[in-house]
Amino acid sequence: MKTIILSLLLFANTSLAATVNDVRVLEVKQGPESIELKLQSKDSRPGSYFFVNVLKTDAEAFTKLGHALSKMALKNNYRLDLDIVSFSDSPNGSYYASDRVRFIGPPEQKIKKPNN
Amino acid sequence: MHSLVLSFLVFLGGSLCFAADEPMCSNTSGNSALIVIDMQRSFVESNGYYKRPGNIAIVEKLITEQKKAIKEAQAAGIPIVFFEYDDVDFGGPTEPQLTTAAMKGYRDVRVLKKTTDGMFDKKNKHLKDLKDFLQRNQIGTLIIAGANGGSCVKASIEGALKNNCNVVTHSAGVADFNFREFIYPYAGRLTEMKKLEKECESCTYKEVASAERLADSMINNNHRNSVGNSGGGGSPGTSSKPKNSTKTSR
Question: What topology does CATH give the domain B25-244?
Answer without folding.
Answer: Rossmann fold (3.40.50)
